[in-house]
Write a structure and sequence with these properties.
This protein has one helix at 9-35, and strands spanning 52-65, 73-79, 84-90, 103-113, 116-120, 123-127. A hairpin with a 4-residue loop joins strand 2 and strand 3 (84-90). The protein has a single domain, classed as Nucleic acid-binding proteins (OB fold (Dihydrolipoamide Acetyltransferase, E2P), Beta Barrel), CATH 2.40.50.140. With 128 residues, the protein is an alpha+beta fold. Strands 1-2-3-5-4 form a five-stranded mixed beta barrel. It is globular, with a radius of gyration of 19 Å.
């Protein structure tokens, strides 16, 4: 016999939790956009044109060591609230100070690889 008592309390709690999580992600993106408001010479990630030299500012979301062609490669996701770009340093296993939550500038040529925005071997500056 089907249950006609309505949604279970567990589903309601799950929906509320997911809703709060989605709201917090939106708030986080708004906070990043406010924090990393562009100044002269900087471009936001969403507006960065492909194959152009850009200067981006954002916060590191993740850092991963992923070999590329047998060579170590340090990858970091940089988020500025408008979008995310993958930063790849070839031949590096780690960079002191680069970790999740760290704000930084990167400067280099942005492109697309495997469907993701990416900057290879950029100049970078850590922001205290």
């Amino acid at each position: 016999m089907p249950d006609t008592a309505g949604p279970s309390p567990h589903r309601s709690r799950l929906r509320r939790s997911l809703s709060r999580w989605a709201d917090s992600e939106d708030q986080h993106a708004r906070d990043l956009r406010k924090t990393h408001a562009t100044v002269a010479g900087e471009t936001c990630i969403a507006d960065a044109p492909d194959r152009e030299h850009v200067r981006l500012r954002g916060t590191v979301k993740t850092v991963t060591l992923r070999p590329r062609g047998g060579v170590p490669a340090l990858e970091a996701e940089l988020d500025d609230g408008t979008g995310v770009v993958l930063i790849v340093w070839l031949g590096r296993r780690r960079i002191a100070g680069v970790g999740p939550g760290r704000a930084m500038y990167v400067e280099g040529r942005i492109g697309t690889a495997t469907g993701h925005r990416v900057v290879f071997n950029p100049r970078y500056e850590l922001i205290p």
